[in-house]
Amino acid sequence: MKATLHLYLRxxxxxxxxxxxxxxxxxxxxALAKKLGMSYEIHNEGGKSSAKDDLENRPxxxxxxxxxxxxxxxxxxxxxxxxxxxxxxxxxxxxxxMVKNEVxxxxxxxxxxxxxxxxxxILGILSExxxxxxKIRTERSRLGKFEKVKMNYWRGGDCAxxxxxxxxxxxxxxxxxxxxSKWVKYIFSEYSKGKTLIEIRGVLEKNKIRxxxxxxxxxxxxxxxxxxxxxxxxxxxxxxxxxxxxxxxTVPQIISNKxxxxxxxxxxxxxxxxxxxxxxxxxxxxxxxxxxxxxxSPMGGKIKPTxxxxxxxxxxxxxxxxxxxxxxxxxx
Length: 332
Fold this sequence. Notes:
Elements: E1 4-11, H1 21-35, E2 39-47, H2 59-69, E3 75-77, H3 88-100, E4 104-107, E5 110-112, H4 117-150, E6 163-167, E7 172-176, H5 178-192, H6 197-206, H7 220-227, E8 235-240, E9 245-250, H8 257-279, E10 300-304, E11 309-313
Parallel strand pairs: 1-2, 1-3, 3-4
Antiparallel strand pairs: 4-5, 6-7, 8-9, 10-11
Helix pairs in contact: 3-4, 5-8
């Protein structure tokens, strides 16, 4: 009976899944199995990060480790040792499983038997080299992104709905997408006039407007994020966690400052009102329309038939989170 070479395929980014990397790993693995006179079985993890993984985000590798414990996997192929992991602790755990279960590791560069003390030491060195290389590439990528952002180029990834990326020979800059921006203006305008997000979403889907990722259905959460995104009023803020520096760039403005503030005010009022609406047991005709002139908080209602009380008042002093508030209502 032929031994089986288990081909573990993985790329570091989901962007590469549809590229040639997985295909190349597969083809070389199959060719190696045929050369060794083995059958083969493919275990495709797809696009998963290796730098910060703790195996919870890699079910295929978890299954392979279980198969090692059962004695099913004895021969494992990977494109490179860093395909197993660049995380020091995770790599150590995988290597220990391989040593315990006498699993031989195959790469295009050679065969590594973890049972051999010298080979085991070499695998450890290769793991350290992979981690160092990963850190160098990560830092190089961070610095490159930071320098481009300082020149007002897009930081990378998908741009927000309403924009498009235009390449000027050096990098990508944000430009207004006329077809999408008119719907951004519609969303902000209608919301400021009192329409709900559910109503607005209905119009978008009726007109077959797709999201940035091409989805037919719009989520209310993504629409909420859109309504508070300052990118639409021409401000792009980038914060670099390592250097603690913030860069503020200008981009094409789609929404006027006045409209953006109107929307922001309505969102705040609805968030404040939400807590009261969930707690109220009585009907108050004007409560949803009254704002305290002293602190701009939504007015509360009070009905006590036994003492003939029917009034509206500022309830800020009665709220449970009063200790967390820095300012009290000036109206007594």
